[in-house]
Amino acid sequence: MNDTPKIKQISFMTFISKANHYVLSIIVIGFTVLFCFPLSGSQGYHLVSFILLFVVSVLATFMSIGPILLASALSSLVWNFFFIPPHYTLHIESTEDILMFGMFFTIALVNGVLTTRVRKQERLARSREERANALFQLTKELSKASGTSEILHVATQEIKKHFAVDPSFILQDGNNHLPAFDQVQKEADLLSRDDFLMAKWVFEYSQKAGKFTNTLSSHENTCYPLKGSRLNPGVLMVKHTRPPAGDKIIFWNTFLTQISNSLEREFLEELAKKARFLDESDRLYKTLFNSISHELRIPVSTIIGASDTLLNGDHSENTRSALYNEILSASVRLNRLIENLLNMSRLESGRLSVRLDWYDIHDLVNKVTEDLKDEIKPFTLVVEVPEDMPLVWIDFGLMEQVLYNLLYNACQHAPATSDISLNICHRNSELIIEILDRGPGFSEEALRNVFKKFFRVENSKAGGLGLGLSIVKGFIEAHKGSVSVENRKDRGAKFTIRIPSELVNEKIAT
Amino acid sequence: MNEKETILIIDDELPIRRLLEITLSASGYKVIHSPTGREGLIDAATHHPSLIILDLGLPDADGKEILKKLREWFFKPVIILSVRDSEDEIIAALDNGANDYLTKPFRSGELLARIRATIRSSEKKKDDPVLEFGTLSIDILNHITKKNNEVLKLTSTEFSLLQLLARNQGRVLTHQYILKEIWGYGYLEQTQYLRVFVAQLRKKIEDNPSKPKLLITESGIGYRFGE
To answer: Does the interface ipTM go beyond 0.85?
Structure first.
């Protein structure tokens, strides 16, 4: 950060040296001459020459070559004019003094030039160190940055800091193309169509273009390709006031290479992630296909078999009715499968719309127990709802599926004639629904995974795709609620649903 | 069964039409069917069916549009067939004059029961001052409701609600329709009013309020008065 004023300071100093150092050297030499006048009488003019040489040396420590040349020439002339006899002429009488004058001029010149050169070397060394530091800083910041946007942020900051220009980046879309103009403009609305076309050219040919280059040099901006070793992440566009020159070009190019490398690394990582994701979805797809075809085949075989038997042959009334029942239950099973698949796809696609409204929880319980009356028949269903149960704020259709799936599961796993309990209450602005059964409960592993898609308890007698509970979870979460499962102390499983539901705040007149 | 009852099926799916024809013919109805909405309208005009079964998902026209056109001159019952999860469509169809709805897949027993109930209630005299449902009797003229010959104390809103549903027995009334009829246009979103009053009414008129037989909930859609 504190490097920015330094750049300004240097340019300020150069400016001073360009114009005012000449004036300054004249003034300094003038004052020295005034100071030496009284001395020259008593100490002789040789001392004056030493004083003048000293002053020129001092000036050389902070002035550049031009003013020093002026100071050397001026000091030898004034020394000659004011102090070497005869005074107030440039004429020198003694040969010794001519020699002295020549030596004075040479010493002053060499002294000044050498000092300036040493200073230049030092300045170069310092700026080299500064650049090395800047690069180190850039590399450090880039390695810390994660994600394209952070890298771009760091790169922009560092370029602003060291080059005093505001860069804009256009990155490729991951398929080795620059995105469309409209899309680019959305992010950097200052970009003109011409700039974009130049960027496209630069990206395609991996060559810089624009102002201060050989291509499209009439443009206001300059565009540089960001080159990587395996792919080119994109291009960078800046508005240079001056072309980078000398060392600065190398510095600039190194900067770009660093930024390109970081972006490339990010792009490659993204590609790898995509490949992994495709693998994963491929696996899911296969699981889905296998289990769906398996699950479909069972009821379909039943239906084909039973109807075929019915069509071919004379059967007793009992056999016929048994076969009809088989067909019906297989169809119901098929239908449930389709329902679950549809629900899952609604959840997966993110198109699930939750239509919340006030409902009487009794209606929900009635609807579900009515739909499941055949399944529930072998059990004792104990429903407990407090007398003063308020209306609840839910999506009826979704909650119907939730309750259906949970009760259906309980019926599949609980031993016949056992109790299945359904406890519903409203506590602390939450609708709480508990479903308890006396089935085998769940293993540790199953407790962790039971809400995951396609998870099925090992050796389960009930068929299905393993979607029921993940649908339950999805629908409950669509209500901003939660569902959990635990084993009961004395055998059985307990599912608990919690859904935030305020009370109807308005008093309804009866 | 009355031989003369004619039912028109408007559905584009052949297996469904075939199944309905077999089922309905076996129950003694005369069945006509049309695969498109346009043909359905012509058949309705030429055959004067006692009831129309209309699929909402027709290929040539929106089922709701067909229903609107039908309702310009056809006043006999219409039962809507629809897929699940299309409550909005069902509600719109009911508000446009459909009497009842069934979601696919449905059981034929259910369909037959709905057809019978719909035809019967459409033939019932609407201006009967006393409506009788089993042990419940509603004297609309004198605002007296009796259950097992005992007079029930109903508030005026409860009575209006009961009377509205009872008069339209067998027909599904949507939430919005009921709210509009009883409370007015300003209350179309106030479903909680309806829930509270239905719960109160059930406690008074049902034999077992938690297993209602009269005030039946059509989930996400509305209420129907059963018997």
So the answer is: no
